[in-house]
Amino acid sequence: GLNTLLNQMDSLGQHLEDRWKHRIGRWLGVVRGPVPPKPLVFVIGATNRPDVLDAALVRPGRLDRHLNVYVPDADGRRDIIQHYLSKKGHDPEISIDLMVSDSVDWTPIELKTIINEALIIAHENGRDVLTYKDWLQARDNRTLGLKQPIASMSEKDMRTIAYHEAGHAVVVNYLSKEDRISKASIIRMGDALGVVQPRPREERHQTHAEELEVNIMMFLGSRAVEELILKTKTANAVSDLQNATNIAIRYVGVFGMGRGPRPRLGAVAEEGAHRPGARRGLQVRGRGEPGKGRSLRAEARQASEDGGAR
Q1: More exposed terminus of the chain, fewer Cβ within 10 Å: N or C?
Q2: Catalytic pick from 93, 117, 124, 165?
Q3: 202 and 162, same structural domain?
Q4: Cα separation of 160 and 233, whole Å?
Q5: Could you give the CA distance from residue 185 to residue 195 in angstroms, rounded to a whole number?
Q6: Contact at 8 Å (CB) between 146 and 170?
């Protein structure tokens, strides 16, 4: 038989205008293959967008067996990292464990790309082998953006940013023993003037209430430091406040972890919990029961306030 792999098959099989219909029809003739006893044709298609495929391609008798390929878990990432490192000059003491921890939810091609870029960084610095530091810089360039130091920044602004980021780091260090701080910086990268990146020490597949509570506190740690130590408030905390609020909404309205007399389930759809209108969703979905929407909003607010107080 003939085995055929069509990568990015959505570029061929999208449900588009009429000019594509004839091409799809001819291609379906190939998919069905020749009549026996001629050799069979096995067609495998790969896509990240199954939702845009023409229905004619995926109905029974055609490409009707659908297999989901998920991102690799920790063991899979370890094997992939070791495979690509074996082809590159690298520090023999490089920590594979840290690289695995840094790359949760990465695809194989993302791992390959970061390793290649880490080696480029090593070459730019006059070395033939990549180190963990090169890996981190390549990762940051991809995920955060290039470093863009502000040479003219005043000492007051630098101090404010440093305390702001330290607030995040202190919360993670003292309240989240399952996480480590992978990066803490006050150098501008992308749109961020500073960044603190916690990473799990071990890959987790469950989300517990305690973890969400720590995340709320971690985001609010920056504002707490501003008020307690700097005796001020800055607009730099806007994204932190938004993230803390969104987690609190999901904590109460999606996961039913509020402290009310009964679980508050289904107040907000999971896919819409992060949207700006989610707070309104708490009210709308609560209209069927007097005071329910108001109670849900109060619980979400209380979850955020508890995090800030702690």
Answers
A1: N
A2: 165
A3: yes
A4: 10
A5: 5
A6: no
Looking at the chain, the number of H-run helices and the number of E-run strands are: 12, 4
Strand 2-7 and strand 41-46: the pairing is parallel
Structural tokens at position 218: 């971690």
pLDDT (0 to 100) of residue 290: 41
Mean pLDDT of all residues in 40-66: 80
Q: Is 226 a catalytic residue?
A: no
State the residue range of the domain holding 163: 155-309
Question: Which pTM value belongs to this model?
Answer: 0.73
Residue 267: other Cβ atoms inside 10 A: 27
Write phi, then psi, for 51 (nearest 5 degrees): -70, -20
Q: What is the C-alpha radius of gyration for the chain, rounded to an integer number of angstroms?
A: 25
Question: Same domain, yes or no, for 281 and 253?
Answer: yes
CA distance 225 to 308: 10
Q: Are residues 42 and 164 in the same domain?
A: no
Residue 253 lies in a domain: yes
170 plus 227 within the same structural domain? yes
Domain CATH code at residue 262: 1.20.58.760
> What does the pLDDT look like over 99-146, one tens digit per residue?
999 999 999 999 999 999 999 999 999 999 999 999 999 999 998 888
Structurally, how many domains does the chain consist of? Answer: 3
Q: Which of 51-55, 109-113, 195-199 has the lowest mean pLDDT?
A: 51-55
Domain membership flag for residue 221: yes
**What percent of the chain is modeled with pLDDT above 90?**
45
Q: pLDDT exceeding 70 applies to what percent of the chain?
A: 74
